[in-house]
Amino acid sequence: GMILKKYAERGETAAPGKALFKVGDTSNMYLRAYITASQLTLIKMGQQVTVYSDMGEKDRKAYQGTVTWIADKAEFTPKTIQTRDERANLVYAVKVAIKNDGFVKIGMYGEVKL
């Protein structure tokens, strides 16, 4: 695993039940994407998709991903979607798994191409 967060410093007293580090496996990463009802018919569990991650200002890096989860209930588009019209739509959340080559970091934005 990899240390994601450090909760204690060297020399501090450790107490029972207090976490010292947050450790996670970043070799497999997951992207949460949102699709419209019309796109829902184009995607299925286990489907291979391409995930693009920003790499600088103009370049993008492509990864092969697998759809591992599709929401069974619609929700309003998250606030992070850029335009007001898109935010007003109902969407379905989708989870896509990718193998991380070390470039992808937690919280990065990405795009999914079906």
Automatic annotation (TrEMBL):
Q: Which UniProt keywords apply?
A: Coiled coil
Q: Which PANTHER family match?
A: BLL5650 PROTEIN, EFFLUX SYSTEM COMPONENT YKNX-RELATED
Q: Which InterPro entries match?
A: UPF0194_transport
Q: Where in the cell is it found?
A: Cell envelope
Name under which the protein is recorded? Putative multidrug resistance protein EmrK
Q: Does the keyword Coiled coil apply?
A: yes
Q: Name one GO cellular component term.
A: cell envelope
